[in-house]
Each structure stands twice: as structure tokens, then as C-alpha cells.
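Worked example 3 (structure in, sequence out).
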């Protein structure tokens, strides 16, 4: 496992609990300490890790971070043996994902893009949804292992397909949070408490994962990040660029991108992405 942020650490924790021999690398070494105490083997360079394993899993912020650990004399691609498998569980630009597939193939290394839907709590138990892109034969060969990483594993098509779908899912998630926040603000303008709005919406057929898991926390003013606003903003920007490349007109997506950008610039970027509610409330002279 390369990349020990909230999600990478959770993936590694899950695999350790299932009895796998887990090797880890992170640019900030102290993040590996809790996993080392659970039995993980810590490496000092990506290449050293790559030369010790059959499967490398990356979970990093973006394609630039992946390029830094994949390439060069200390990159894991130079350490992996031919026939080894690289699973990328990061959320990155689909064009970069396709490039990574090509670069791996040129070295005789297999690759699947496998971003996930779900948070660290689900990842630590192997309960996320995994979105797969790459060779279907390769997917079938490793399907049982992929089911150790996620409860639901969906094969979506050739190289980059998993990362394309992940951008679609995250754009949708951002739009839901934005819509929820606007409805919450209007309800507050009417004089209802946020808790009343959330409890009411969750009794309707219009409830969803956001209203049920994030909604109560928003009502309490709790925005500890499981997925930061800045990370969602990164994905919205990628989705916006892909929309332009594919001649898609997405007015709500563009408006949402602008709103999240403003929220980040207002200092909300390190909070959970549900803190978009605070930005929309502020626009209306309210606080949450």
C-alpha cells in the first residue's frame, strides 16, 4: 500500500485484519507507525516496496502524487517484477489513468483502476464500492481479491473507466450536498431548526445516503472530514475539464464548482465537504 492517508490506512488495516502480508510506504514516514504496530512492513522507498510485493495498491491525492512515487530511479514501477499488478484506488484524471495503464503495460506490469465510493470507516472493513477499469480478463482473475477490498465491485470497461465513473459519482455527490444545503437554508429562513429539517427529509422518500449520514452532523454543526471539501473540489475541477473535452453542457455542475471554490477560498477546504452548507448559509446571513 502506497499512500497512508485516511483511505490508504483504512485499506491497509482491512487487509491486515484479513491476514494479508501488507507492505506500506508513505512520504511522511510517521503515518506508517500505527500500521507497523499492527504488523505492516514499512519501506523507505517506493522501489524497495515494489521489489517486495506481487500487488501494489496506490491511494494518493492526484496523478501528480502518483507520478512522483511511480517513476524515477526510486519509483515502484522500477521495482515491480513483470506480471505484477498495480491497483490504483486514488481518484485522478481519467486521461492520466489511461497513461498510467500504458506506462505499466510497457514494463510488463498489469494495472487496474479501482477508485472507491465510501469513507474510511467502510474501507477499514472492506465495505466500500470499488469501480474497476481495465482488462476484463484481468478483473476476473483478481475478482476474489478485489472483493476483499470492497463489498461491491463493479467492472465498468477498459482503461480509465473506473476513474471516469468516480468523477461522475463525486460530481453527483457534490450536487446533492449543494441542493441539501440550499433546502436547509430556506427551512431555517422559515424558522425551522436544522435538526427538524433533517429529521423531516429523512422521513420522506427523498432521503439518501447524504441526508442520513451527513445530514445529522450538519444539523449539529459538525464538519470533521471523512472526505474534505478540497478533495471534492479537486474532483469537481477534473469533472469540469472532462465535460469540456467531451462537449457536455452541465450548468448545475458549473454553478456547484463555483460555489465549492468560494467555500475553499473562505477557509472551509479542510473541513468535510458537507461544510458547503456553511458557505451557503453565510451567503444568506445565517450560521450553521
Amino acid at each position: 500500500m502506497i499512500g497512508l492517508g485516511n483511505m490508504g490506512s483504512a485499506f491497509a488495516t482491512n487487509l491486515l485484519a484479513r491476514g494479508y502480508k501488507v507492505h506500506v510506504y508513505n512520504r511522511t514516514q510517521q503515518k506508517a507507525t500505527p500500521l507497523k504496530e499492527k504488523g505492516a512492513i514499512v519501506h523507505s522507498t517506493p522501489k524497495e516496496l515494489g521489489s517486495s510485493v506481487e500487488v501494489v495498491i496506490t491511494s494518493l491525492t492526484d496523478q501528480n502524487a502518483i507520478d512522483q512515487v511511480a517513476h524515477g530511479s526510486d519509483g515502484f514501477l522500477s521495482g515491480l517484477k513483470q506480471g505484477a499488478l498495480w491497483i490504483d484506488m486514488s481518484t485522478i484524471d481519467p486521461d492520466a489513468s489511461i497513461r498510467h495503464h500504458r506506462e505499466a503495460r510497457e514494463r510488463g506490469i498489469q494495472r487496474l483502476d479501482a477508485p472507491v465510493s465510501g469513507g474510511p470507516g467502510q474501507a477499514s472493513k472492506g465495505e466500500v464500492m470499488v469501480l474497476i477499469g481495465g482488462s476484463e480478463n484481468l478483473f476476473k482473475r483478481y475478482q476474489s481479491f478485489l472483493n476483499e477490498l470492497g463489498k461491491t465491485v463493479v467492472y465498468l470497461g477498459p482503461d480509465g473507466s473506473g476513474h471516469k465513473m468516480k468523477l461522475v459519482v463525486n460530481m453527483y455527490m457534490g450536487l446533492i450536498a449543494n441542493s441539501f444545503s440550499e433546502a436547509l437554508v430556506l427551512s431555517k429562513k422559515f424558522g425551522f431548526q436544522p435538526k427538524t429539517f433533517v429529521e423531516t427529509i429523512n422521513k420522506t422518500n427523498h432521503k439518501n445516503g447524504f441526508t442520513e449520514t451527513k445530514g445529522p452532523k450538519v444539523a449539529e454543526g459538525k464538519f470533521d472530514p471523512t472526505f474534505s471539501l478540497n478533495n471534492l473540489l479537486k474532483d469537481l475541477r477534473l469533472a469540469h475539464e472532462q465535460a469540456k473535452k467531451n462537449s457536455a453542457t452541465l450548468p448545475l455542475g458549473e454553478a456547484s464548482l463555483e460555489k465549492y471554490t468560494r467555500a475553499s477560498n473562505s477557509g472551509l477546504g479542510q473541513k468535510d465537504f458537507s461544510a458547503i452548507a456553511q458557505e451557503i448559509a453565510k451567503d444568506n446571513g445565517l450560521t450553521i
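Notes: The radius of gyration is 20 Å. Residues 164-283 form a domain with the N-(1-d-carboxylethyl)-l-norvaline Dehydrogenase; domain 2 fold (CATH 1.10.1040.10).
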